[in-house]
Amino acid sequence: MEEKVVETRGLKKSFGDLDVLQGVDLDLYKGENLVVLGKSGSGKSVLIKIMVGLLKQDKGSMLVLGKEVSQLKTKELNQLRLKIGFSFQNSALYDSMTVRENMEFPLIRNVKGLSKKEITYKIEELLEAVGLPQSINQMPSELSGGQKKRIGVARTLILNPEIMLYDEPTAGLDPITCMEINRLIREIRERYNTSSIVITHDLTCAKETGDRQAVLLDGQFKAIGTFDEVFAHADDQRVKLFYDYNFINI
Amino acid sequence: MSAAEDDKKPFLSKKFDKFFTGLANAWSFVCRFFKEVFLPPYEFKEIVHQCYRIGVESLPLISLTGFIVGLVFTNQSRPSLTEFGAASWLPSLISIAVVRAMGPLVTALIAAGKVGSSIGAEIGSMKVTEQIDAMEVSATNPFKFLVVSRVLATTFMIPLLVMYTDCVALFGSFLSVNANEMVSMSTFFVQVFESISFLDIFSSVLKSILFGFTIGIVGCYKGYNSSKGTEGVGQAANSAVVISMFLIFIEELLALQIVNAIRAF
């Protein structure tokens, strides 16, 4: 049986009167890329923020690498966070730091005993992997949207995570850059042997990066399976609409 | 009325509830600062960086303001003192006014405008662009890196800036006194130091430490709790300045009462 790295059961989360997640069940298996699709505001980002302890669920369980996230103490949570890479929707690069400093930041605080040479080697290796070795001394303000996304991904990879969480990796990018980011997500899985959750509402991204798709509507997963299983035989009208709008109604 | 509706009903009124919730949050923010400041790891590099930004980069503005305050205050006081034949008391008057009140107050107000707003805006923009979340998920304590370092930097640097402002203001005053009353530098400064006591300098430094802490903690609190996107960043910067200035005046008033009580004792 395949090993589960994330196991979610009956997860509920509300913000005031708004019930965002209403009993979510989800499994992520080792080495797979799972895409979570859904309308804007459907709670996709909330789900992965609960995974890294940025938000706390109201009910239900969230097991990540066998640990219940909501019950971890700060130190244990930080240990777990080192195994999870989180790529933010707007890259979240530190404005006041260069690309090198951005990438050094998590490394020098969490891995002790590294020499300056080793740190530089690691940074250069990852920048090479994301195709931006020349950007090492640039400030985030000098980078394009796609370059920022790549650097953001490289920064999360510097701690060798086991799980990658991508929040809207292609949002606001042109089709060619989207294609490059999709390729990068696949390459990262092959190269670093990660399991990933990709949050998106872009079906092209979903099709190209995901082994399985999960559609989140009304706070619950309405369909989970391969791309064809979810969209070719969709019973739910809104799941069908998702597909039609992305691939037919252009 | 259902239980859920009962829960949502404000205890006093929405405004009062918000005010007291805000006070409780601010208090827990201050308590968290005092807890985190003593716990390792220590962000020495960031503290030094912030000290440089807050201290050195404020020097031109502080110098200009201090100099003008000293010069203008001397020129404004001269006619009144001359009327009573007490123009020779100008150095004493200026030194007491500058060291006891004007130096700390002017420096703190300028720092609240320049440093407080920049801290509020910087941390606020980091908050709305998820940079603080990014620090947290990379297992770094953003409170320690952003808040503790900045509050310590303002607490260390404002007293130094106040001493510098005092010197520059007295120098500005000296230029005016020298030009009008033909008083030499040594005579001027001998009179200055004869007029001020240890308590004046000690209370000025203590006040400045308090002002520095206030500017840092208010700027950080407002930035750290900002929301509503770019509008929230502007609000954070603005309210950091307004609240800091308000608290500085209250602290000045309290400090004055305490020092006067000590003097009387």
Counting helices, strands and paired strands, the structural category of chain A is alpha/beta
CATH topology of chain A: Rossmann fold
Report the principal-axis shape of chain A: globular
User: If you compute it from the alpha carbons, what radius of gyration of chain A comes out, rounded to the nearest whole angstrom?
Assistant: 18 Å
Structure overview:
The complex is a heterodimer of chains A (250) and B (265). Chain A is of the alpha/beta class and 250 residues long. Chain A has one domain: P-loop containing nucleotide triphosphate hydrolases (Rossmann fold, 3-Layer(aba) Sandwich). In chain A, 39% of the residues lie in helices and 26% in strands. Chain A is built from nine helices and ten strands. Chain A has helices at residues 44-51, 74-81, 99-110, 116-129, 145-157, 175-192, 203-209, 227-232, 237-247, and strands spanning 4-15, 18-29, 33-38, 59-64, 67-68, 84-87, 163-167, 195-200, 212-217, 220-225. In chain A, the strands form two sheets. Chain A has a six-stranded mixed beta sheet, sandwiched between helices. In chain A, strand 7, helix 6 (175-192) and strand 8 form a beta-alpha-beta unit. In chain A, helix 3 (99-110) packs parallel to helix 5 (145-157) and helix 4 (116-129) crosses helix 5. Chain A is globular, with a radius of gyration of 18 Å. Chain A starts with a strand and ends with a helix. The mean pLDDT of chain A is 92. Chain B has 265 residues and is mostly helical. Chain B has one domain. Helices cover 85% and strands 0% of the residues of chain B. In chain B, helix 5 (90-128) packs across helix 8. The longest helix of chain B has 40 residues, at 142-181. At the A-B interface, helix 2 and helix 3 of A face helix 5 and helix 6 of B.
